[in-house]
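Before a colleague's protein record goes any further, I have to sign it off. What it holds is a sequence and that sequence's fold in token form. Would you go through it and say whether the fold makes sense for this chain? The record follows directly below this note.
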Amino acid sequence: MSAVRRGRLALLVVAGTYAVALAWAAAVLPARAPAHFDAAGRVDDWSSRGGLLALWTVVGLVVLVGVPVLTRLGLRGDGTWVNLPQATKDHWLAPERRAELRARFQDDMEGFSALTGGLLLAVLAVTTWVGTTGRDDAPWWVLAGLVGGYLVMAGVWAVKTRLAYRPPGAG
């Protein structure tokens, strides 16, 4: 049996934690729950608990299941659906490297799904906290920190991934 790759492991941990957080939210959210925050952290839209949980379930499924599945489908075949610079595409889609590309890129995208799922998980936790405390706001710096931190980590991921797939000898 092969070892579980880091991206897959992160995805499994985040997905499991997300499911627990959804169950927690279902158990503790009031009937009227916060559905959206403005830039200052104030709740500017409310929803029913069921509607909000349905939304969080669909968004979680799209990010934590849909992205990895679409990645797997996109990596099938001759590489028509792989969007890489031509020299990089020629290198990685050569028959002797195609299996390695599939494994590495699938793992990288599962890691990115886990990163995005982590943001969703944190926002779900803040939303549930606001809903259960009877507040009508969250500290703006919490939401800004979550989004800002995610954007920095996504940027680092993008640069790291871009560099990881350069063909040998590329500058």
About this structure: The radius of gyration is 19 Å. Residues 73 and 110 are 13 Å apart (CA to CA). The beta strands are 32-37, 43-48. The first helix runs from residue 6 to 28.
